[in-house]
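As promised in the previous annual report, we have extended the structural survey to additional targets. Below is the entry for Tryptophan synthase beta chain.
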Amino acid sequence: METVKYLLSEREMPEFWYNIVADLPVPLPTVLHPGTKQPVGPADLAPLFPMALILQEVSTERTIEIPDEVRSIYRQWRPTPLYRARRLEKALDTPAKIYYKYEGVSPAGSHKPNTAVAQAYYNKQEGVKRLVTETGAGQWGSSLAFAGALFDLEVLVYMVKVSFNHKPYRRALMETYGARVVASPSEETAAGRAILAEHPDSTGSLGIAISEAVEVAVQRDDTRYALGSVLNHVLLHQTVIGQEAMAQLEQAGDYPDIIVGCTGGGSNFAGIAFPFIGAKMRGERDVRVVAVEPAACPSMTRGKYAYDYGDTAGMTPLVKMHTLGHTFVPSGFHAGGLRYHGMAPLVSHLLELGQIEATNVQQLETFAAGIQFARAEGILPAPEANHAVAGAINEALRCKEEGVSKTILFNLCGHGHFDMTAYTDYMAGTLKDFEYSSEEVAMALAGLPSVG
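The corresponding structure token record, generated without further manual editing, is:
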């Protein structure tokens, strides 16, 4: 019998998160205060995050222990399965071996609860009563709403307006878990009102929604902000994915030649890739790592590596990252979770160091890949995950053209059961590709802050 899925027992779930900062050959650039442009300290971040997360954000330790209470909740869906995509291999007629780690088995349907549960736990430990956040496609908002219900925390979610309208069932799931969901930009915040005054028909962006959430978070002592991607501690929490994949591939007697991940802010990409990149940087095993982003929001492939704000209003600390400019508002394409102007500083840094590659794909190609995958493997991917599927298929077809057999691993970071409007639009032929002119990109980058 040919094995299709590789499973770990609950006892084999990782006990530690892996911190790639410990293995970087060149340290990350300093994070700067948005007002003074000086390096930030823990006190500067305290209005936004509990101290435990701030310490994780700046940690240089290679491993950080996962609290028992967090691991006990993880057990509800972790370890997640690793699949060998044998039917997809056959459909592609490729000599490549394709594996995918499936994170859609979590209660919220994606990888996001890996950090949502951890963030809710640390906030609860510090006496926080309310969490405020943003969400694009709604997978992060759903996950934080789920975690908030577990820890009896009030959750307020600013959801990017285009996704708020496209994904009513994702919004309903958040409300089922007990969260309040507001379309962003909204009239509830100064940041939202300013955007609407200038652009009354604004479809929103993650940068705008972050501005609204941060503004609300700092107004009450019992409230903190939670972020679903980009920051070091968020990427740290996702590394359970890659650690499990390592153990499962060992079961299969295999190791990836190529790792593919979709990238918007960087969290699921980091989750699958960082443990393998760490092994590569320590000189243990080589691997080629490909980050796939949407052509409609190409921060790594067409952006600039520079200091920029994480939000549109310029309220967040300045980090050095690949960015399209914090004022950039991407078109309303369906992969809402990838509609972010910047890339995680750690992912950006690895690209600058030559440890990873970046490419972009158009919307129609990703949906074609997702449907091909669903018809072969039976799982309907989220539009975000379709970027990884497309990247993996492209690599498998390259193996076919070159007549070589390589092992490809990708992260299927979530299912598409709440994204049927997008699939319906694709099959009706109403979706289109988006491309930005060099002038449009240059205009967005012209607003980058000046940092000495």
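The mean pLDDT is 94. Residues 383-402 form the longest helix (20 residues). These points will be discussed at the next consortium meeting with the crystallography subgroup.
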